[in-house]
Structure formats: structure tokens, C-alpha cells
Design goal:
The protein is an alpha/beta fold. It contains 23 helices and 26 strands. An 8-stranded parallel β-sheet has the order 4-14-13-12-11-10-6-5. A 6-stranded mixed β-sheet has the order 23-24-22-21-25-26. The structure holds zinc ion.
């Protein structure tokens, strides 16, 4: 038996098990550190082993590209080559079909990737992906799958799913070495009924040693991911391990366990370390922030790792600010330890039938920010700040909340026009865009944010990117004629909590905010003039004031000026019921389609 189920939780789908592999025995639920190219970033194999980790992940596509299978066959496989005394699970390359979509052509035979930099062309078929994983020396192999964005429409998703099922059958036939386990991958995008079909169809095929849930953590809202995970896990065979691919933050792991998942992998612990982010027993700590320059306390008082036990936060802050690799390595080790310990805590609770209580205790902790230094600008001394500026005034959203919105005094129009502005921005401008989904997976992206306003939409983007350290280079260009609305909102952080981030302050002061992977620039003045010199976009958010305040921005002439600037396919997202606006868009050459409706 590959997998035995040792304990199941009460009031939860959580379960504890034992996964037996040729080179290791793994207690589940377990987290697998990611060594995409054969190295867990900044960590020597004995450091990883010292945490009790027995299984790490490597990526077939990247290893086929470099060093190539000839080298891996010559040296007797990856584990031996990198001196890893544990087991290796390999992703098949199916995720790269999605993340490198711009460089990949796919049909029923397989996927062909155009060369990356000076690398070779890589072709993966179900059969060659198995052969490659055997050459890598994988203990757990994944079938080649066809992953699409969670926002893809039903027809595209169903076709990719059918292809994934056919490829799974071919992978079973291609497998020669039964000591190596083979997992199928459930697809179905964001469509619940396709997810059901995929789980049932792959279960009916039989012959797989485990089941992965793929195609999630690609930009869909967290609640949707959790619902689909629960739906799929519930239909998979109880006696096979379940692996949720590419997920996630510590809270995501806890939620996954609660829904019946046994295995996780994610680059976050090591990738976030490079951004100075530490996951701790008291919440998330962002060591880049200047407040830590004066904090000589331990990073996590409950952690015995070298960073926490021997170094003050001020020194770790210094290492991150000066981009010293030692800082990345120390934080990566701390983060990996936090993940591994979290899974050990969870396993013990499941075995002792107290998982539900642990779940309730841990959730708020895992979602917390450092309580000593909550993010956002320090509260200023109490001096009544003006509630109006220029054409704008702040009004409370309702009688009880501190939250506010900006009113354009002359017209009475408010911004946001509804209460839950951040969720709406994420829903309307992020969840609907396939270009944004590709950016989360690594593709470059230029966005025009036409009508910055109080920066609700822009901050929804920045927050989403902050949570996705593997994202591609994003260039956000915001257009705004009257910056009084943003200045007013920034002066009232209690009323506008979405602005508790350094980026909007920097943008208003310098017309520019930069961090690795993100450039956010401000174009002041008339948007239709400014867009003539902006870089051509992949995605446009059109959110100026309404036609009754600013009719010129909703005219055919405006959209024609936009269209003239496009050099490649571009998505334009706006909210307008007016047939005149639809006609203006069509006249300018845009295809018009319905999107997600306002709640
Ligand atoms: Zn630590």
C-alpha cells in the first residue's frame, strides 16, 4: 500500500496518514518545500533535512530544459546529484502550459515550448513527461495535464479537462517503473460541475496512486478555491493521498487540511523570504518596513531557529534592506520551519481528535499581522483633519462604521459607490482578466488604470501581487486629472484602510512607486492626452467619473484614441449599462461582452 489512513478528524474532513515511497516515509498532512530547478532556494539539502522534511518538489519542465535529461541519467537522478537523502515529487510541466502560455503551443499530442533565452525547445507529451520523470528519479510522478486560468470560460475549460483525462490514461500506459508512484491531476477550472466530472472520471480510470487538485491558486478568490477544494476532495477515493498543487499561505494550508487535503507545495516560504516577509507564531512580519530598524526584539519569540534565537529584528531588517543573501537564507529557513511545524501541529491534533479546536484557535493567528507594528502609516497626533479638499468631501459609509467614501460635491456622485469597494475591485478588475491571471503565473503585464480616484482598484491589484511573489513584471499606469480625492483619502487612513500601504503615499509624492516586479506610475492631467505617451497595455481598467460628470471619457472619440494606442490584444474592463457606451466601444473597434455583474 502506498498510503494508509491513520486518523480522521471529528467535525472536519481533516485526516492523518502515512505515505510510503521508495526513498522515504512521509507523515501527512505534509508540506513539500519547492526546489524547482533542483535546489530549495538558498537552502542546503542538510538544512532542509534538519527540519524533518522527507519529500521535496522539483519541476520536470525546468529540469528538462536545464541541465537536461542526459546529465540527470548520467549522475543517477536528481536526489543523488543534489545529495538529497529523501524523496522527490515532480510536477509534470502542465502548469507551465498555463504560466508560459505565450511561449507554448498545445494540441492533443502534447505541448511545445519555444526556447527561453538561450535554452532548447522543450516538447512534452504524456509519454515523454513520464520518461523525463523516470530519468529525474522521481518518487512521485505527475501526469502531464492541461492547466487553464480559473477564469476561462466553460468550453475552453471543458476541452482542457478532456485532454487532461486522455493524457492521464496515456501516462498510466507509459509508466514502466511501478516503484515510482503516479498521481492524476483533477482539472475543471472555476466550474464546479466540471470539477465534479474530472474527479469522478479520474477516479473511475483507476490505477493512480494518488490525486492532485490542479489549476487552483492561479488568481481565483480564496473562497472559490476553498469551495472547489472541498468539493473535489470529497469525491476522491478515501484510500489515496490528495495533493493541492501550488497552495499556499499558512492559512491556506490549514483550510486545505480542514477540507481533506494531505499534501501541499508552495514557493511562498522561500520566495517571500526574499521580500523580507516572515510567517510567525504572532502573525506576518514584513521586515522591509522601516519600523523594524528600531526593533531589537526577536523575530518570533516562540521559534528556536537561528534567525529568531540569535538575531534581533533590526539586523534582519538591515540584511533585507541591503539585499544580503544571508538574510534571504535565514528567513527562508525560518519560514520553512514555520510551515513544517504547522503541519506537525496539525497532525498531532488530528491524531488526538482535537483538530476542530486547533482550527478555530489557529485561524486568527495565521491571518494576523505583527501586532507590535501593524501595517500602515503611524497614526498622527490628534488634530482634526479637514474632511474636504477641492471638489471632494469625505462622508461616512454608514452611521456605525468608521469607513468612509469620497463624494464629488457638485454632482453628489460618490466613490466608491458601494460599501465593499475592495472586494468589488478584485471581482470586477482582477477576477475577470485572463491577462492578470497570466501575470500572477509569471507573464509580464502592462495595465492602464484610467481614473485613479481613491486608488481602490490599484490597491486591490497591489495587494493581489503582494500575495503572489512569483508574479511577472507588472507595469501599472494610473491616469488622474484631479488628485485631491486621493490626497483627501490618504489623510484619513481610518476611513480608507485599503490605503495603509507605502505605495499610494509614494505615488502621490513622487508620481512613482517601485518594488521588484512592480512599477506604478502616475500620469497627471487629461487621460486622453496622457495615454498617447504611455506604454501599450495588455489590460485597461476604465473607471473615470460617470458620463454625467465627464462625458468626454465615454465617447467614441475617447475609445478610438485608446484603440489607436494598442499594439497587441488587450482587455478593457468597465462598468456601464448604457447602450450609448456599448455603441461607442463597438464603433472604436472593441468586441463587447458581458462580465461579472455587480452584486
Ligand atoms: Zn525562526
Amino acid at each position: 500500500m502506498t498510503f494508509t489512513l491513520d486518523a480522521t478528524a471529528v467535525d472536519s474532513a481533516a485526516r492523518g496518514g502515512t505515505l510510503r515511497l521508495a526513498r522515504a516515509t512521509v507523515a501527512t498532512p505534509a508540506f513539500m518545500p519547492v526546489g524547482t530547478r533542483g535546489s530549495v532556494r538558498t537552502q542546503a539539502p542538510d538544512q532542509v533535512a534538519s527540519l524533518g522534511v522527507r519529500l521535496v518538489l522539483a519541476n520536470t519542465y525546468h529540469l528538462v530544459q536545464r541541465p537536461g535529461l542526459e546529465v540527470l541519467r548520467r549522475v543517477g537522478g536528481l536526489a543523488r546529484w543534489m545529495d538529497w537523502d529523501g524523496a522527490v515529487l515532480t510536477d509534470s510541466g502542465g502548469f507551465q502550459v498555463f504560466s508560459l502560455a505565450h511561449a507554448c503551443t498545445i494540441d492533443d499530442t502534447g505541448a511545445r515550448f519555444r526556447p527561453h533565452r538561450d535554452g532548447p525547445t522543450v516538447t512534452l507529451t504524456p509519454e515523454s513527461a513520464i520518461a523525463a520523470q523516470e530519468a529525474i528519479g522521481s518518487d512521485v510522478m505527475m501526469v502531464l495535464d492541461h492547466c487553464v486560468a480559473a477564469t476561462s470560460d466553460r468550453a475552453i475549460t471543458a476541452a482542457a479537462m478532456a485532454r487532461t483525462h486522455a493524457w492521464a490514461a496515456r501516462s498510466l500506459t507509459a509508466r514502466r517503473d511501478h516503484e515510482r508512484r503516479l498521481f492524476a491531476i483533477v482539472q475543471g477550472g472555476g466550474h464546479a460541475e466540471l470539477r465534479r466530472t474530472s474527479a469522478d472520471s479520474l477516479t473511475a480510470q483507476g490505477g493512480f496512486d494518488g490525486y492532485a487538485i490542479g489549476g487552483l491558486a492561479v488568481g481565483e478568490p480564496r473562497a472559490q478555491r476553498e469551495d472547489l477544494t472541498a468539493l473535489v476532495a470529497d469525491r476522491l477515493p478515501r484510500d489515496r493521498p490528495r495533493y493541492l498543487m501550488g497552495v499556499g499561505t499558512p492559512i491556506d494550508l490549514l483550510e486545505g487540511v480542514h477540507r481533506g487535503v494531505d499534501l501541499f507545495d508552495c514557493i511562498l516560504p522561500t520566495a517571500m523570504a526574499q521580500q523580507g516577509v516572515a510567517f510567525t507564531s504572532i502573525g506576518r512580519v514584513e521586515l522591509r518596513r522601516s519600523v523594524y530598524a528600531g526593533d531589537d526584539g526577536p523575530l518570533d519569540p516562540a521559534c528556536p531557529c537561528p534567525a529568531c534565537a540569535r538575531l534581533p529584528r533590526s539586523y534582519l531588517h538591515h540584511l533585507i534592506k541591503t539585499a544580503e543573501p544571508t538574510g534571504w537564507s535565514l528567513l527562508a529557513f525560518h519560514n520553512l520551519r514555520f510551515y513544517v511545524e504547522l503541519m506537525a501541529t496539525v497532525r498531532a491534533a488530528i491524531a488526538e481528535h482535537r483538530f476542530a479546536a486547533l482550527y478555530r484557535t489557529l485561524r486568527p493567528v495565521l491571518e494576523a499581522d505583527d501586532p507590535a507594528h501593524p501595517p500602515g502609516p503611524a497614526p498622527r497626533p490628534t488634530r482634526a483633519r479637514a474632511r474636504s479638499r477641492g471638489a471632494f468631501a469625505i462622508e461616512p459609509i454608514d452611521d456605525t462604521a468608521e469607513l468612509g467614501r469620497i463624494r464629488h460635491v457638485a454632482s453628489g456622485e460618490t466613490m466608491p459607490s458601494i460599501d465593499d469597494a475592495e472586494a468589488t475591485a478584485a471581482r470586477r478588475y482582477l477576477a475577470q482578466s485572463s491577462a492578470f491571471a497570466r501575470a500572477l503565473a509569471g507573464a509580464p503585464l502592462v495595465i492602464w488604470d484610467v481614473g485613479l480616484g481613491a486608488a481602490h482598484d490599484a490597491l486591490a491589484l497591489v495587494a493581489a501581487l503582494d500575495r503572489a511573489p512569483g508574479h511577472g513584471a507588472v507595469e501599472l499606469v494610473s491616469f488622474e486629472r484631479d488628485l485631491d480625492a486621493l490626497a483627501l483619502a490618504l489623510a484619513h487612513p481610518r476611513a480608507f484602510p485599503h490605503l495603509r500601504h507605502p505605495a499610494p503615499h509614494r505615488l502621490l509624492a513622487r508620481d512613482e512607486f517601485r518594488r521588484p516586479g512592480l512599477t506604478w506610475t502616475l500620469r497627471r492631467g487629461d487621460a486622453l492626452d496622457a495615454l498617447a505617451t504611455a506604454p501599450a497595455p495588455d489590460l485597461i481598467w476604465w473607471d473615470p467619473w460617470s458620463p454625467s460628470i465627464d462625458a468626454s471619457m465615454w465617447s467614441a472619440a475617447a475609445f478610438t484614441a485608446v484603440a489607436a494606442r494598442l499594439t497587441r490584444p488587450c482587455e478593457l474592463i468597465l462598468a456601464a449599462r448604457s447602450a450609448a457606451v456599448h455603441a461607442a466601444l463597438i464603433a472604436a473597434g472593441f468586441d463587447v461582452a458581458n462580465g461579472i455583474a455587480r452584486r
